[in-house]
Specification:
Distance between the termini: 19 Å
Keywords: ATP-binding, Nucleotide-binding, Transport
Pfam families: ABC_tran
Number of strands: 10
Radius of gyration: 17 Å
Low-confidence stretches: none
Mean pLDDT: 95
Strand content: 25-35%
Protein name: ABC transporter related protein
Largest sheet: 6 strands, mixed
CATH architecture: 3-Layer(aba) Sandwich
Helix content: 25-40%
CATH topology: Rossmann fold
Bound molecules: adenosine-5'-triphosphate
Organism: Oceanithermus profundus (strain DSM 14977 / NBRC 100410 / VKM B-2274 / 506)
Order of helices and strands: EEEHEEHEHHHHEHEEE
CATH superfamily: P-loop containing nucleotide triphosphate hydrolases
GO molecular function, one term: ATP hydrolysis activity
Structural class: alpha/beta
CATH class: Alpha Beta
């Protein structure tokens, strides 16, 4: 089957104030629809960079990025934004909810950008919140929620849009280990029961025990891949 997400010989060098920092040094990666994949590696190994490139948030210095049969790295910023809006969900370390909006409005936000009618937005956002057991908090603003609850709203926001893939960049980094594990369990259930494709990064080895596919990144290179039956 064709890969949903694919990177070929990906290199990324950041240039700032005349200093060059190589973040990825020739990464080949692919994931099929329905996978639940962890990108593991120590701080600075290039996990965020890889997820940003796979999701079309940034461009590689060299190499190709394919998403659902389309080559991302040759598209301009507007075309990449459109593709992200329709095909990609993101969950970030710092939740990135909009502070003035309620949980329900946050969960509906991507659908609003897509121009969906209000009633359909609300229905889908409410259903997504319910999947994360956050429907009882629909009217709360982010500052009235715990970190774990905010991150569940962020997953609901991604989920409501039914993207082809959800990239989650260290989604548990700001959560205690119990809450972090619970979040991963929510994501795993959505993968198992609804077939949602997740690619998430972590530097916490404890979160990897029950993940089927783990890709280990070190110093900008994939050094090891595990796939458990
Ligand atoms: N915008 C940037 N400008 C310059 N260097 C950067 C930039 N972003 C990342 N880097 C560097 O690229 C390398 C990889 O960083 P990246 O954030 O991808 O790693 P990471 O594995 O996600 O780390 P962490 O677990 O700490 O988030 C690091 O050396 C980092 O300092």
């Amino acid at each position: 089957m064709q890969a949903l997400v694919e990177a070929r010989n990906l290199h990324k060098v950041y240039k700032a104030d005349g200093v060059e920092t190589p973040a990825l040094r020739g990464v080949d990666f692919s994931a099929r629809a329905g996978e639940f994949t962890a990108i593991a590696g120590p701080s600075g190994s290039g996990k965020s960079t890889l997820l940003h490139l796979l999701g079309g948030l940034d461009l590689p210095t060299e190499g190709e990025v394919w998403l659902d049969g389309e080559r991302l790295d040759e598209k301009d910023a507007v075309a990449r934004a459109r593709l992200r809006l329709w095909k990609v969900g993101f969950v970030f370390q710092a939740y990135n909810l909009i502070p003035v909006l309620t949980a329900l409005e946050n969960a509906a936000f991507v659908l609003e950008l897509r121009g969906l009618p209000a009633r359909e937005r609300a229905e889908r956002a409410r259903a997504a919140l319910a999947e994360l057991e956050m429907d009882g908090f629909a009217d709360r603003k982010p500052n009235q929620l715990s970190g774990g609850q905010q991150q569940r709203v962020a997953v609901a926001r991604a989920l409501a849009a039914e993207p082809a893939v959800i990239f989650a960049d260290e989604p548990t980094a700001n959560l205690d280990s119990k809450t972090g594990l619970a979040l991963i369990e929510y994501m795993k259930r959505l993968n198992r029961e609804k077939g949602v494709t997740f690619i998430f990064s972590t530097h916490d080895p404890r979160l990897l025990e029950h993940v089927r596919r783990v890709v280990h990144l070190e110093d900008g290179r994939i050094v090891h891949e595990e796939e458990r039956g």
